[in-house]
Design goal:
The structure holds two protein chains of two kinds. Chain A contains no helices and eleven strands. By secondary structure, chain A is mainly beta. In chain A, strand 4 and strand 5 form a beta hairpin. Chain B has no helices and eleven strands. The radius of gyration of chain B is 13 Å and the shape is globular. Classes of the chains: A mainly beta, B mainly beta. At the A-B interface, strand 5 and strand 10 of A face strand 5 and strand 10 of B.
């Protein structure tokens, strides 16, 4: 079975950094694009970042709200995805979900349970 | 950026009844539209993609329709586990993909 398990969330002060990890299993990880989607408390869903696969040169894309502050990466050897978050703002506080792109279209067929990021002084 | 607008924001329906949820795109997204269900305390779950194709394991009471800018998710006979928040998401205009704000389906 496909499984996505996030970790690394926690409490951080504004301006601080945090690195989220996502351990994937149950599928041929190297073939898929992987994304991060977030959800602020009581709010809707917001796409954050994408990392493509080796065939697409591991290219990345970011939402305008996080560009130049967040970096997404992957390690196919350990089937993991990462999100390095720098210069965190209070508005970055959210549940962060690791999601698998369907490979048919840019929608998400599997979601992790999420890791909570709190940004507060 | 394509803006997705869902209506209503909150819907109260009795178990066993039909629920019809709407999603409108600010410009045509063809049939590149997905629906997700999010139960309290859980991650979202894919219900429908391609506007009308049910995802694996999704019950037949869920059906999607529409194309262009107007889309509908219908739940034919509501079960207790269907009371949740539903999100639509467009993926035609590829960057960025965008979600609707959600419709909360409540027990009447």
């Amino acid at each position: 079975d496909v499984e996505l398990v996030e970790s690394g969330g926690g409490l951080v002060q504004p301006g601080g950094s945090l690195r989220l990890s996502c351990a994937a299993s149950g599928f041929t990880f190297s073939g898929y694009f992987m994304d991060w989607v977030r959800q602020a408390p009581g709010k809707g869903l917001e796409w954050v970042a994408r990392v493509r696969n080796k065939d697409n040169r591991y290219t990345t894309e970011y939402a305008a709200s996080v560009r130049d502050r967040f970096t997404v990466s992957r390690d196919d050897s350990t089937t993991s995805v990462y999100l390095q978050m720098n210069s965190l703002k209070t508005e970055d506080a959210a549940m962060y979900y690791c999601v698998r792109d369907s490979s048919i279209g840019w929608y998400y067929d599997y979601w992790g349970q999420g890791t909570l990021v709190t940004v507060s002084s | 950026e394509v803006v997705m607008t869902q209506s209503p924001v909150i819907m109260s329906v009795s178990p066993g009844e039909r629920a019809t949820l709407s999603c409108r795109a600010s410009q045509s997204v063809s049939n590149a539209l997905a629906w997700y269900q999010q139960r309290p305390g859980q991650a979202p779950r894919l219900l429908v993609y391609g506007a009308s194709t049910r995802a694996s394991g999704i019950p037949a009471r869920f059906s999607g329709s529409g194309s262009g800018t107007e889309f509908t998710l219908t739940i034919s006979s509501l079960q207790s586990e269907d009371f949740a928040v539903y999100y639509c998401q467009q993926y035609n205009n590829k960057s960025p993909i965008t979600f609707g704000q959600g419709t909360r389906l409540e027990i009447k």
